[in-house]
What we know:
Elements: E1 2-5, H1 11-20, E2 27-33, E3 36-42, E4 45-51, E5 54-59, E6 62-67, E7 69-70, E8 73-74, E9 80-85, E10 89-96, E11 101-107, E12 111-116, H2 121-129
Parallel strand pairs: 1-2
Antiparallel strand pairs: 2-5, 3-4, 5-6, 6-9, 7-8, 10-11, 11-12
Amino acid sequence: MIHFGDEFADVKFSRAGDYELDEGERVERTFLSLPKNSRERRGLMQREVWLPGDLLIGTDRRWIWITDRDKGFCDRFGRIIRSVRRRDERAISFRRDPNESVLVLDFCNAQWIVPITAELEEAAAAFAAHL
């Protein structure tokens, strides 16, 4: 298995990944972007902002996307899981735009667009380039 991105220090994502794998399914590559929090200050008010996390798992049978991203925001206690058969894969690419960097996974009947933070751009590009 080849891993890209953050290390598996988050119990939520590592357990979710283990739980989603079928018996005998072999993991070939993974990409992890852990949830991150920051504090924003506006005048006297301060608030905590969470950026969602994403785990992409490429197995010998399918692609799995585990995220706590819900409508662009972080759902700290939930997770959303999507999967697509490996044979439906068309292309995996990394796009760096002025406003946002994304991993794009194209399938026959779906497209996953995963936002990437600046510190993980290099890992995301390597993940997309890995065959």
